[in-house]
Amino acid sequence: MRHVERNQRVVVLALDGVYPFELGIPSRILGAADGRYEVLTCSVDGRPVSSNADFTIGVEHGPEILATADTVVIAPVSSERMTLELPEEVRTALTFVRPDARIVSICTGAFVLAAAGLLEGRRATTHWQLADLFRITYPHVDLDPDVLFVDDGRILTSAGAASGVDICLHLVRKDHGSELANTVARRCVVPPFRDGGQAQYIEQPVPEQGAASTAGTRAWALERLDEPLTLGDLAAHARMSLRTFARRFNEEVGLSPGRWLIQQRVARARHLLESSDLSVDQIAGRVGFATGASLRQHLHAAIGVSPQVYRRTFQTAAR
């Protein structure tokens, strides 16, 4: 976790077949961070690139500018334009990236990193629809298709489309703390955190027409995270049987009610660790974990660090 003292240069690599929306995410999100980032765009040869839409995108820089980047972002291309073998011009462009530069991929950009050997033995993610192809092609990468992004230190990967927003907000939080990241989110009219992971977007059976939603019960539960909520409590609030509620909840959210509750409690705990001086035991009580030990266990399972390390990292970054 880094504490950034100066403005960072972020260089986005645009390849032929690039998605225009995702290509623009780093500039839009990081560009709203009070001048903390300079975002530039390059191609493998300095020439315009075709997009997956009906227009071509002009860029100002060739691959040489990658050598000046603190962070490199690999923008995604449409699956029709993907090649499993890394094109020679892309491989050459990546040689300009400094060994200490942070590298981020959005969506299918993970295929570029994997083909370049940069994800070998690492945990990563990509769009859920391409997860099977990714696993077959790159079996030595620890793929997690259920999350919105993976931070594996120097290399970060994100899932499809709007998860580029999530990972860019994560970069701001990581570099400058939650206060600035929340400000950026408000300016861009996006949530600072999104609940759950890709699982909620994977194609699910459509609930029966006219079926009651669990949304009201989810909102009700979020106001009572400090209480020992059970599946029975949730089903009773939704006025459904346990079986019907669990099935419908999974259809709508892509997670079981129990897993969703843990995610919400961990998210609330992270916020309190960042924004308050409450003890770990006090935070555990406020978010519905029985003990501080339980909070430590669930936080470590979610993000791989202890509450003390998490607090020290983000409270330091905010200063």
Automatic annotation (TrEMBL):
Source organism of this protein record: Streptomyces pseudovenezuelae
SUPFAM superfamilies cross-referenced by the UniProt entry: Class I glutamine amidotransferase-like, Homeodomain-like
Highest taxon of the lineage: Bacteria
Keyword Nucleotide-binding: no
InterPro entries assigned: Class_I_gatase-like (IPR029062), DJ-1/PfpI (IPR002818), Homeodomain-like_sf (IPR009057), HTH_AraC (IPR018060), INH-QAR (IPR052158)
PANTHER family per record: ARAC-FAMILY TRANSCRIPTIONAL REGULATOR, HTH-TYPE TRANSCRIPTIONAL REGULATOR RV1931C
A Pfam family matched in the record: HTH_18
Gene3D superfamilies: 3.40.50.880, Homeodomain-like
CDD domains for this protein: GATase1_AraC_1
Keyword Cell membrane appears in the UniProt entry: no
SMART domains: HTH_ARAC
Listed name of the protein: Helix-turn-helix domain-containing protein
Keywords: Transcription, Transcription regulation
Domain HTH araC/xylS-type: 215-313
